[in-house]
Every structure is written in structure tokens, then in C-alpha cells.
Amino acid sequence: MKVIVLGGDGFCGWATSLHLSAEGHHVTIVDNLVRRRTDEELGVSSLTPIRSIEERLQAWRETRNTPIDFVELDVAKDYDRLEALFRQVAPDAIVHFAEQRAAPYSMKSPWHKRYTVDNNVNATSSVLCAMVEACPDAHLVHLGTMGVYGYGKTKGMTIPEGYIDATLRSAGAEATVEILYPVDPGSIYHMTKTLDQLLFLYYAKNDGLKITDLHQGIVWGTSTPETDLDERLVNRFDYDGDYGTVLNRFLAQAAIGHPLTVHGTGGQTRAFIHIRDTVRCIALAIQSAPKRGDRVKIMNQMTETHRVGDLAQMVSRMTGVPVEHLDNPRKEMAENDLVVANDSLINLGLEPTRLSDGLMEEVVEIAGRHKDRCDTSRIVCSSLWVRPIAAE
Ligand code: NAD
Ligand code: USQ
């Protein structure tokens, strides 16, 4: 298949592009490289020494004798070039990773809030609009988030895959309808993913676009069989307080001997998936497109749930590095349970990678190898969900 990967220079996008190319798909990466500029803005860099996009693509050509095309383009702002590219490539599938994805970054300041909304909503809106004009038969596979469902409001209930039956009552009449699961975003970033959902609903209904929305949990790990093939193919590893996600942060902290930064009690339960499973899920999703006119296909892309505090204890037992409980910079429930249905991807053939499969040790080893690149002053999260009111 011809596949366009929007955001293909990022953490999930790079590993996915290589995996799809290795599976024989013809891949075109589209990226405006903003994530690399954000590192400069924040004064941090990936713990692993990622190479320029040119060097990455050259290394892939040399390793696999397979080209991956690259187009530098802002998906949110450069609509005409996006539509022209869709016409020129005539993709069978478009994988959409091209959004600002860090919750702490999205909460840093009014500028960061507005940038995250502008970038993410305009990117998705432009992709859908251009598909109608240029490639209405293509299949859009979007990376959404488990965070659209929110945490903790439905104790004991399994979170379904996107939809739920609801009984509506008004003026004495009653109707049972299927609706999108009620959203409950916990950050500006997560809110943009709920807005994406409405754009998908509309374009699937009105224009018959084929859309799959993957509600992904927190991705951990850094390498895949393809990124391991050559050191120039190394994937990014974010450990800082804005872009680092919790398990990778704990594993990096363990590698450098920094206390494990648990926010609050550590009672927050979240969904997780290894980057190896991420790339497999996307390959599986591409192969099972909905038909034109179908409702948006929503699949929960996660393999297990864990409490943040339990993960910290697990990493601490493994490495001997102590756990530290910090004031929680976020506005979130201190404790929640989380049960998630993920039958769709399992039924498509996903064999979950588990935390116990020795891969946590691999991540600590990789982080340890590059620990000289770690700026310890960037570890603690400084982005606050609610800013303190200035004293009179
Ligand atoms: P990332 O920041 O590493 O990658 C995103 C890529 O998109 C970057 O290369 C960036 O330069 C590019 N990009 C952003 N805006 C763009 C624009 N307007 N035009 C062109 N390119 C643009 O993020 P990631 O961790 O790879 O996440 C990818 C997607 O997966 C995101 O949409 C995120 O919401 C979703 N997701 C990620 C995780 C996770 O734990 N990393 C979990 C669930 C869902
Ligand atoms: N946390 C800590 N200590 C840390 C970092 C985080 O206790 O050092 C806690 C947070 O307070 C939160 C939980 O761990 O309760 C998860 O935080 P996170 O930064 O790992 O994940 P999150 O902000 O939810 O975002 C990440 C990705 C995002 C994706 C989302 C999937 O950055 O792109 O959408 O995971 S999910 O969480 O399932 O919505």
C-alpha cells in the first residue's frame, strides 16, 4: 500500500514509518520538524542521540535498500501543499500523528494552550478536508488517546471502544441511541483529541470518509526491531518534565540514580502500551479499514493498566533507586480505577508485550548508555495545571 505518515519524524511516527516500510508499504513521511524546534525552545534533547531526518532516511536506504520519501510541510497551516501532496501520492492510507502531544507542554502558558489547540485542531481539520478533495477513498488512521474518556467517573465499569448506548429523556419521551462515550479531558492537549473526535464523526457521516481512531494509552520503551538495525535509526527518548511520559521517565531516572518522581499519592491508574505494539497495532489497523459510509472505527490501543505508584515501586525494586512523592502539578483525581476493553486489536491479532517481558531492563540499559546527555534540572515537571494566585 501507499501510506503517508503525518508526523513521521516523531517518537511513534518514526518507529511506525520504519515498520510499515519493512512490511513492504511505500511510505511518505510528512513532518514540519516542530518537535525538534520544541526541544530547542525547552532547552532539552532526546536522551538518545537522534539523527537529522536526512541521515535517518539515508541510513534506512542503506540498511534495507528501501526508500522512504520525506516532505517538510506544516499540516495545520499549509493546506494547498497538503491537498496537492494527497493528489500526487494518491495514498491508500494516511496515518496521522502530527499533533502537539504533551499534556504538560499544553498547560505551560496561554501561548502553549492556544498553540496546542490551533495546531492539533487545524491539522486534523485540514487532513479531512484535503482527503475529501484529493483522496476520498483513502483510509485515515488517527492516533487519539485513552485520555478522552477521562479517569475515575465510572467506578467498576469497563470503558468500551468509543461508543456507548445512552437513554435520552426529554419532555416525557425516551430514546436509546448510540453516542460517543462522554468525554472528560484532563488537559488542553487531551481536549484537542476530543475535538478531533467530532471532526471525524462529521466527515465520516457527511463525506463517507473511512476513518479509524486509535485511543492509545501511554507509550513506553523506545526501540523496535527496525530502530535497532543501525545506530543512526535510533528512536527519540523523552525524559524531561514536559514530554517524558511516566514509565519511561521512571526508567530513565533509575538509570541516572534520580529519585522516582511520583505525583501525589501515585494512585492514578493509566493504560500502557510498548512502542513495539504501537507499530504493530497501526499495521493491523491499516489492514482493516472500515467501508465508506461506516461510522468511525474506534479501537482502544493499550495492553495493560497500572497504578503510577505501583510502577514506581516495581522500578525501585528492580534498580534500588528510591521513590519520591512530589506535590502533584496536575489537576487530576488522586486515585482512580481503570478497566478498558481492547478486544478489537486483540481480535485482529495483537499479541501484547507485557511489562514483565524484560523490556524494562532494556530501557534502563539504553538510558544508562546515554546518561551523560541527561540534564537533571529538566526532570521535575514545572508546568502547573492551576497557577498559584499572586499574593496582593
Ligand atoms: P511526537 O511529538 O514525538 O511526534 C509528533 C510529530 O508530529 C513530530 O515529529 C512533530 O514535528 C510533528 N508535527 C506536529 N505538528 C505538526 C504539524 N502541524 N505539521 C507537521 N508535523 C507536525 O509525538 P508522539 O509521541 O510520536 O505521538 C504521536 C501521536 O500519538 C500524537 O498525536 C499523540 O497524541 C499520540 N499518542 C502518543 C502517546 C505517547 O505516549 N507518546 C500516547 C497516546 C497517543
Ligand atoms: N506522572 C507522575 N510522575 C511523573 C510523570 C507523570 O506521577 O514523573 C503521572 C501524571 O501525574 C499522570 C500519569 O503519571 O497521572 C501519566 O502521565 P504521563 O505524562 O505519562 O501521560 P499523559 O500526560 O496522560 O500523556 C501521555 C502522552 C499523550 C497520550 C497519553 C495517553 O504524552 O500523548 O495521549 O499519555 S493517556 O494517558 O492514556 O491519555
TrEMBL record:
Chain ranges of the NAD-dependent epimerase/dehydratase domain: 3-289
This protein's record includes keyword Hydrolase: yes
Enzyme Commission numbers on file: 3.13.1.1
Pathway membership: Bacterial outer membrane biogenesis; LPS O-antigen biosynthesis
Keyword vocabulary terms for this entry: Hydrolase
Alphabetized GO MF terms: UDPsulfoquinovose synthase activity
Annotated InterPro entries: Epimerase_deHydtase, NAD(P)-bd_dom_sf
Xref: Pfam families: Epimerase (PF01370)
Family stated for the protein in its record: Belongs to the NAD(P)-dependent epimerase/dehydratase family.
UniProt-recorded name of the protein: UDP-sulfoquinovose synthase
Lineage, top ranks: Bacteria, Pseudomonadati, Pseudomonadota, Alphaproteobacteria, Hyphomicrobiales
